[in-house]
Amino acid sequence: MAFDKKNFVRGLALASFSDMNYISEDMAKTMCEISREMMMDEK
């Protein structure tokens, strides 16, 4: 199975959001922005 960057990023984001109590809101926003930028690069 090939490494799927998009699914990896999505999984990483979901893991971060499920641990929201442990990370700051700024970190969550940064993760959102990075994920969005990476998704846009895919297109």
- Whole-angstrom Rg: 11 Å
- The fraction of residues in strands falls at under 5%
Number of helices, where a helix is a run of at least 4 consecutive DSSP H or I residues: 2
Query: What is the string of helix and strand elements?
Result: HH
Detail the poorly predicted runs: none
- Distance N terminus to C terminus? 21 Å
Helix content: over 70%
Shape: flat
> Which structural class do you get from the secondary structure elements?
mainly alpha
- Per DSSP E runs of 2 or more residues, the count of β-strands stands at 0
The biggest sheet amounts to: none
Average of per-residue pLDDT values: 74
- The tally of domains stands at 1
Question: Can you walk through the features of this model?
Answer:
With 43 residues, the chain is mostly helical. The protein has one domain. It is built from two helices and no strands. The longest helix has 18 residues. The radius of gyration is 11 Å and the shape is flat.
Supply database-style keywords.
mainly alpha; single chain; 74% helix; 2 helices; 43 residues
Secondary-structure map:
Blueprint: H1 5-18, H2 25-42
Write a compact overview of the structure shown.
This protein is mostly helical.
